[in-house]
Amino acid sequence: MPASGTAGGAGSGGNRPIRRYPEAIGFLGGAIMVKRVLVTGSAGRIGRAVVAELLVRGHMVVGYDLRPTPGLPDANNIVGSLLNADLLARAMAGVDSLVHLAAAPDDSHFPPADDNNFESELLPSNVLGSYRVMDAARRVGVRNIILASTGQVIDGHLDDRNTPITAGMPYRPRYLYACTKVFLEMLGRVYAEQHAMRVLAVRLGWCPRDAKQIAEIAADPESQDVYLSPGDAGRFFAAAVEADPAARPRWAVVYCTSLPRQQLLYDLEPAQKWLGWRPAEQWPTGAE
Fold it and tell me: How far is the C-alpha of 226 from the C-alpha of 256, rounded, in Å?
């Protein structure tokens, strides 16, 4: 999602109890409470799954993307760029939680090539855009932030078979896209520590966007072990929205994948501990 964003000012919603879900029981008297949630990158593969899951659970969702988000009313469907700081701030009015998914999706060339997309796409979207998202959240007063990072930030450990990989292991990014996600995680940490926010960085597995990526996963057993289905992704982010932010550290990192086919490569225990979330699906469920 190059240099993207979305903003939309819709009225704030009150809290009312809705039905319980086993993977994330709300923190007010054990009942799930309605949240107003801004989802950036809401029209993407994972974004659509997150929006759908939040809506099913009764939450009020504002989508922010370069194109309209299916399933949202016009008032909550904001089309705009991540570089538009004023639009971002208006989109966050009355928001309880921010789910920041929007990003330029990956390196245009890997292995490295002279014509990479770092300056044209990764830098404006994933670095400057992420800064503007976090600073808008600071200015508006959003206190629960969930940032979409990637398992690519520790890719080198997979090469060395240092598994399962935990959140405390040092960064070993794959390439330039992964470097922008290291920046995102550290940006979240700075804002958590300096501005009293609760920031959760989630290192996502591989949720394929098209038939080519599906074929790549089908041909590689290791990729199947880091596969992330849209359904598991949607339930993860809903759990992160509904869980008590005070129950986890002010800044924390967790992994999110579906169930492995052969070997657990990422440590999923912190997501269960802090969010009550467990994956329910396995490759190839949901890939099509």
Answer: 9
Backbone torsion region of residue 57, taken as left when φ is above 0, otherwise alpha when ψ lies between -120 and 50, otherwise beta: alpha
Q: Is residue 26 part of a domain?
A: yes
Selected catalytic residue, list 171, 175, 177, 227:
177
Amino acid letter, 228? L
CA distances from 100 to 7, 105, 170 (A): 12, 13, 23
Evaluate whether residue 284 is within a structural domain.
Answer: no
Residue from 275, 206, 284 nearest 237 by CA: 275
Name the CA dihedral angle for 222, 40, 167, 190, rounded to a multiple of 10 degrees.
Answer: 150
Domain boundaries, position 268: 17-275
What is the 3 state secondary structure string of 104-167? CCCCCCCCCCCCCCHHHHHHHHHHHHHHHHHHHHHHHCCCEEEEEEEHHHHHHHHHCCCCCECC
- 10 Å CB burial of residue 113 (0-12, 13-18, 19+) is exposed
CB atoms inside a 10 Å sphere around CB 215? 11
Assess whether 177 carries a catalytic annotation. yes
Q: Decide if 10 is inside a domain.
A: no
Q: Is residue 4 part of a domain?
A: no
CATH number of the domain bearing residue 88: 3.40.50.720
pLDDT digit string, tens, across residues 130-185: 999 999 999 999 999 999 999 999 999 998 988 999 999 999 999 999 999 999 99
- What six digits make up the tokens of 194? 């300096």
Distance, in Å, from the CA atom of 242 to the CA atom of 277, rounded to the nearest integer, reads 11
- SS3 state at 218: helix
Structural domains counted in the chain? 1
How does pLDDT run across 27-44, given as a tens digit for each residue? 444 566 899 999 999 999
Residue 232: which of 167, 155, 284 has the closest Cα?
A: 284
